[in-house]
UniProtKB/TrEMBL annotation, chains A, B:
<dbReference type="GO" id="GO:0046872">
    <property type="term" value="F:metal ion binding"/>
</dbReference>
<keyword id="KW-0413">Isomerase</keyword>
<keyword id="KW-0479">Metal-binding</keyword>
<keyword id="KW-0170">Cobalt</keyword>
<dbReference type="Pfam" id="PF13669">
    <property type="entry name" value="Glyoxalase_4"/>
</dbReference>
<dbReference type="GO" id="GO:0046491">
    <property type="term" value="P:L-methylmalonyl-CoA metabolic process"/>
</dbReference>
<dbReference type="InterPro" id="IPR017515">
    <property type="entry name" value="MeMalonyl-CoA_epimerase"/>
</dbReference>
<protein>
    <recommendedName>
        <fullName>methylmalonyl-CoA epimerase</fullName>
        <ecNumber>5.1.99.1</ecNumber>
    </recommendedName>
</protein>
<dbReference type="InterPro" id="IPR037523">
    <property type="entry name" value="VOC_core"/>
</dbReference>
<dbReference type="InterPro" id="IPR051785">
    <property type="entry name" value="MMCE/EMCE_epimerase"/>
</dbReference>
<dbReference type="InterPro" id="IPR029068">
    <property type="entry name" value="Glyas_Bleomycin-R_OHBP_Dase"/>
</dbReference>
<comment type="similarity">
    <text>Belongs to the methylmalonyl-CoA epimerase family.</text>
</comment>
<feature type="domain" description="VOC">
    <location>
        <begin position="4"/>
        <end position="134"/>
    </location>
</feature>
<dbReference type="GO" id="GO:0004493">
    <property type="term" value="F:methylmalonyl-CoA epimerase activity"/>
</dbReference>
Length: 135, 135
């Protein structure tokens, strides 16, 4: 059901400092920052040969990652995003298997302009899973 | 300097239950369990089209992930592993950039039989980074 690992998201308290570290210390290729007010984050993608790391900084009052950074002030690993070809079929299969979908259960549009959903971390051993529909 | 994302490691309290969930709910392809006593873990690899997820369960008294699971009893995202072609050159570059290498600073042999090193999460915004030499 799952295809590629689209990205691994890391929450950071200071995006500019994280970008600088990934560029200079790790020699990585980093995208320009992209504000996603509806998700409450500013994102940057770090490109690797086979997948991406997404660095997330809180944006606005209702950021979805504010609570995570309160618990993990240094930052940390936030979620993993898998690609699916049909997000509604994947959602229905997972709900049938007892997994909970966060929010109202309907996909939103994510950082790549594709529909995305999040699954409850309690149903996947503490890991927050994002599904992204990529045709 | 970094090439592919080799794997993303998730610590789980019950490997058999996690394997069952990744197989049945997510429809993923999962390897046989592999005991790595010198790392204090039993590992299973979940294969995706472009990379792998490594599920880790503690093994023995001195497991390196026991403390993590005490803090995160449900499990959670533990580390991310990047491939490098020359692990000693990568280590020396990173040390020069102020990053700390865990342990005695010398590579050990990891789950794939290749030399691996871990970098201090405080130097990478709370994310534990493994480097694996893949020629």
């Amino acid at each position: 059901m799952l295809g590629r690992i689209n990205h691994i998201a890391l929450a950071v308290p200071d995006l500019a400092a994280a970008v600088e570290r990934y560029r200079s210390s790790l020699g990585a290729t980093v995208s320009e920052p992209q504000a996603l007010p509806e998700h409450g984050v500013t994102v940057v993608f770090v490109q690797f040969d086979n997948s991406k790391v997404e660095l997330l900084e809180p944006l606005g009052e209702k950021s979805t990652i504010a609570g995570f950074l309160t618990k993990n002030p240094d930052g940390g690993m936030h979620h993993i995003c898998y690609e699916v070809t049909d997000i509604l079929a994947a959602r229905d299969h997972l709900k049938g298997a007892g997994a909970r979908v966060l929010g109202d259960g309907n996909p939103k549009i994510g950082a790549h302009g594709n529909p995305v959903l999040f699954l409850h971390p309690k149903d996947f051993f503490g890991t927050l899973i994002e599904l992204e529909e990529v045709k």
